[in-house]
Automatic annotation (TrEMBL):
Domain Beta-mannosidase-like galactose-binding: 37-200
Molecular-function GO term, any one: hydrolase activity
Gene3D superfamilies: Galactose-binding domain-like, Glycosidases, Immunoglobulins
Pfam families named in the record: Glyco_hydro_2, Glyco_hydro_2_N2, Ig_mannosidase, Mannosidase_ig
Keyword terms of this UniProt record: Glycoprotein, Glycosidase, Hydrolase, Secreted
SUPFAM superfamilies attached to this UniProt entry: (Trans)glycosidases (SSF51445), beta-Galactosidase/glucuronidase domain (SSF49303), Galactose-binding domain-like (SSF49785)
InterPro entries, per the entry: Beta-gal/glucu_dom_sf, Beta-mannosidase-like_N2, Beta-mannosidase_GH2, Beta-mannosidase_Ig, Galactose-bd-like_sf, GH, Ig-like_fold, Ig-like_GH2
Name of this chain's protein: Beta-mannosidase B
Domain annotation Beta-mannosidase Ig-fold: ranges: 764-843
Length: 845
């Protein structure tokens, strides 16, 4: 949150520096988040210091009235907070000067959620939507000198209950009644913390004459020779005024000027301009994410009235659904190039959003970049993310699949509710539509499939179920697409993710969430079945435990076993641990202790999801996207994430990085053969060598092949097929490994490993690993490893040192030397460690 305050303050500084010459004219912002805030339970007079932006939970914690919410089972003790009403108040000074402006607005960027706002004891606003921005003309209520602001937050739990009780057709989830992040009410990876408070900045905005309220940079047509753009500018004027609108794009040498006659109220201005030979915006892996800065200024005579800067990536993005012989395609096309989407589903980073700062945003996007992703899905049970999140996606070429905030439920359809949603959609579409990264608007998460496949209609009497379905249609098939049509015309809208679950013979169009793995407990191998490979896989996943250091942070030693109450509470899926056990027993030996259990759960998760990713990529161009569930966590928990709450990469994230590499070599045993597939997201075909070797576990070559190979551009191809029996040369399958490498210009551009038996049946032995540790600069170590026997899923750690291994959870074969770096700031203040913890699969049972 800090960066937003910083941003607003810097805007203020810019305004102030101009205001020496243009005193009355330029808009001013007075940040009220900076003043002293106090909070209390409603009807108590015990006001205590509070933080804005923030939440009641964090304020109670800061005042030492509650324990750390994520620790042990504290969640259970804190449910009372969400059931009570809370009051926030502040006072602030307003100058005579400020009140001389034509308008003074009180702006809330986010209120959580049912809020009655009083300015100098006058009721000025009733808010009822977490996702909306609220503005009130405050001038008539403000006085020179001290002013008071008081906000009463009603318990969302109570409001939901009341609304459900009063509903003629009560819906099955209370949370559906409020426009508040669904995950606050608990999810299968998230705790129940029903927050209240001022969750985004609040400020006064004072302006005279005219103010730019919005700059929408519409990309009318884009190709590599020419971009035709339209700056659609909204200006609020307090009186009729002659002015000049200036649109500048310095990098492109553009400066357009337009004389405009403003009328009182809202004015819609348009300024068309062209950029020749634009530097296009590309997603990660395809090219540079070029951005232009478009500056819009409004000038009257020689005075600057207002200005706005917007970063624009020039690109043509669309979702292509063309009929073909197998159904209909479902892929994103960027500047005419079909993009295979590689990414993950993203959830909010915290249960308490005020804990998230700009460094957290940079970190999470960096995890995506480091794992070769080019798309993130912002899932519909959280919230429309901060501007900074999308700025980072713009800068780094991460496409965003953006859900509207509806998940796993049916929602009301009353006029008042729909009007509230409409305003929410307008607020957020207008806020986000300029972002180059924004690729798709999606109506909801799993509401449609729930209704169609999960027997939701049966939850209602027949006549009522018709109403609930009609309400669905009104919201997702009418209201939301209409908002997109009006406010972000041309951007694609997809009513619900997914179109298909599993169990469909051929998913020949749309997207799919495949939960046969995990929820139906089918083996990972179902990922390989043709009927389970959709056009676009927008969800699939498998859980694991976070690493021991993460668990230590929320437990006492006596909690550190799977069946402790604390570990059970940090597992939110009903049968989470038993499901992990089921899969574990299929493929692994039973772990000997809790630490081994953590380790195996990660290795297992990585194995399964890697299988899925490779199957999806091999199926290119039939399948054109894979977004696994889920990238991150909102608290320390056992979950489907690949990076845990403390930013520690699980085994999965390393495997994802490899499986999402631009070129993938994927060996697969199919019937009698081992087939080698090459998948490339590169735009150029490449020539190289394909090396396929069968080793025994002592590192002896049993069989090998070296052939010239063409790495195809932007597609998948089977490039070799070998008879398995010929390759084994009479050896046992459980003591062999097949390693494949692709070499282009003496560089290994892809490699991969295939075992012929399940890990539990492999003839593994205690591996003798040798290592050397050397210091590399101030804050890195180089670790060199060799082994005398095949070591599988090697996990390195320094128990006392926090840091990042450039590779981990890898296999090592005799004859190979592996070099890894370990990066840690802590190395600046410690001696170079001489020992390192190394374990591999064989050590876990
Ligand atoms: C999908 C998601 C989430 C959920 C996940 C794991 O259905 O949309 O609702 O957390 O599965 O169960």
């Amino acid at each position: 949150m800090k960066q937003f305050i910083f941003l607003v303050i810097s805007c203020l500084m810019i305004f102030n520096s101009c205001s020496n010459t243009l005193e009355k004219r330029v808009p001013q912002k007075i940040i009220l988040s900076d003043s002293d805030w106090f909070f209390a339970e409603k009807d108590s007079l015990n006001f205590l210091p509070a933080n804005v932006p923030g939440s009641v939970h964090m304020d109670l914690l800061q005042n030492q009235l509650i324990e750390e919410p994520y620790y042990r089972n504290n969640e259970n003790e804190l449910q009372w907070i969400g059931e009570r009403d809370w009051v926030y108040k502040t006072s602030f000074n307003v100058t005579q000067e400020l009140l001389k402006h034509d308008a003074v607005e009180l702006c809330f960027e986010g209120l959580d959620t049912y809020a009655e706002v009083y300015l100098n004891e006058k009721h000025i606003l009733s808010a009822d939507n977490y996702f909306r921005q609220w503005q009130v003309n405050a001038k008539e209520y403000l006085v020179p000198g001290e002013n008071t602001l008081q906000i009463i937050f009603q318990s969302s739990v109570q409001v939901n209950k009341d609304k459900r009780r009063a509903d003629s057709v009560p819906l099955f989830d209370d949370y559906a009644y409020s426009r508040k992040p669904a995950f606050h009410f608990g999810w299968d990876w998230g705790p129940v913390f029903i927050t209240a408070g001022v969750w985004r900045p609040v400020y006064l905005k004072a302006w005279s004459d005219a103010m730019i309220t919005d700059a929408h940079i519409i990309q009318k047509s884009v190709n590599k020779n020419l971009a035709e753009l339209n700056a659609s500018i909204s200006v609020e004027a307090s009186e009729p005024l002659e002015a000049i609108l200036i649109v500048e794009v310095e990098e492109a040498g553009i400066k357009e000027q337009l004389d405009v006659s403003l009328t009182t109220g809202l004015n819609k201005l348009a300024c068309e301009f062209k950029i020749e030979n634009p530097e296009l915006w590309w997603s990660h892996g395809l090219g540079e994410a070029n951005l232009y800065e478009v500056k819009t200024s409004l000038v009257s005579k020689s005075d600057l009235l207002d200005s706005k800067e917007t970063k624009v990536g020039i690109r043509d993005i669309k979702l292509v659904q063309n009929p073909d012989e197998l159904g209909s395609s479902f892929h994103f096309e960027l500047n005419g190039v079909p993009v295979f989407a590689k990414g993950a589903n993203y959830i909010p980073q915290e249960s308490f959003q005020s804990k998230v700062d700009s460094a957290d945003y940079r970190r999470v996007i960096q995890h995506a970049i480091d794992a070769n992703m080019n798309m993130i899905r912002v899932w519909g049970g959280g919230f429309y993310e901060e501007d900074y999140f999308y700025d980072l996606c713009d800068q780094h070429g991460i496409l965003v699949w953006q859900d509207f905030m509806f998940a796993c439920s049916m929602y009301p359809g009353e006029t008042e509710y729909l009007e509230n949603v409409k305003q929410e959609a307008i607020d957020n579409v207008k806020r986000l539509r300029n972002h180059a990264s924004l690729a798709l608007w999606c109506g909801n998460n799993e509401n449609y499939i729930g209704w169609r496949d999960w027997r939701w209609p049966g939850k209602f009497p027949k006549e009522d179920s018709a109403k609930v379905w009609n309400d669905y249609l009104a919201l997702f098939e009418e209201l939301l697409p209409e908002v997109i049509e009006e406010y972000d015309k041309g951007k694609d809208y997809w009513p619900s993710s997914p179109k298909y679950g599993w169990g469909y013979p051929v998913n020949s169009d749309g997207d799919s969430h495949l939960w046969a793995v995990w929820h139906a407990q089918d083996p990972f191998e179902v990922f390989l079945e043709k009927e389970n490979i959709p056009r676009f896989m927008s969800e699939y996943g498998f859980q694991s435990l976070p690493e021991m250091k993460t668990i230590e942070a929320f437990t006492l030693p006596e909690d550190r076993s799977i069946d402790s109450d604390v570990m059970k509470n940090h597992q939110k899926h009903r049968i989470g641990y038993p499901v992990i056990d089921t899969y574990l027993k299929r493929d692994y030996q039973w772990p000997k202790d809790f630490e081994s259990c953590i380790y195996i759960s990660q290795v297992l998760q990585a194995k399964g999801i890697k299988m899925g990713i490779e199957a999806h990529r091999r199926a290119m161009p039939f399948c054109m996207g894979t977004l696994y569930w889920q990238l991150n966590d909102c608290w320390p928990v056992a979950s489907w994430s690949s990076v845990d709450y403390y930013n520690r990469w699980k085994a999965l994230h390393y495997k994802v990085r490899d499986a999402y590499a631009p070129v993938l070599v994927s060996p697969l045993e199919e019937q009698e053969n081992i087939n080698i597939y090459l998948v490339s997201d590169e735009q150029q075909e490449q020539q190289g060598q394909l090396l396929t070797t069968i080793f025994d576990f002592q590192g002896n070559v049993v069989w090998e092949s070296n052939q010239d190979v063409t790495v195809p551009a932007n597609t998948s191809q089977k490039v070799a097929s070998f008879k398995t029996n010929d390759m084994l040369k009479g050896h046992q399958r459980n003591e062999l490994v097949c390693m494949t490498k692709v070499i282009v210009d003496d560089q290994i551009i892809a490699n991969n490993t295939l075992y012929l038996e399940s890990p539990k049946d492999l003839n593994l032995k205690k591996a003798k690993l040798s290592y050397q540790i050397e210091k590399l600069g101030e804050d890195a170590l180089q670790i060199t490893l060799t082994t005398a026997y095949l070591a599988k899923d090697i996990c390195l750690s320094f128990p006392e040192l926090e840091g990042f291994f450039t590779d981990n959870y890898f296999d090592l074969i005799p004859g190979e030397t592996k070099q890894i770096q370990f990066r840690s700031q802590a190395l600046r203040n410690t001696n170079t460690p001489t020992t390192i913890n190394i374990k591999s699969l064989v050590d876990s049972y």
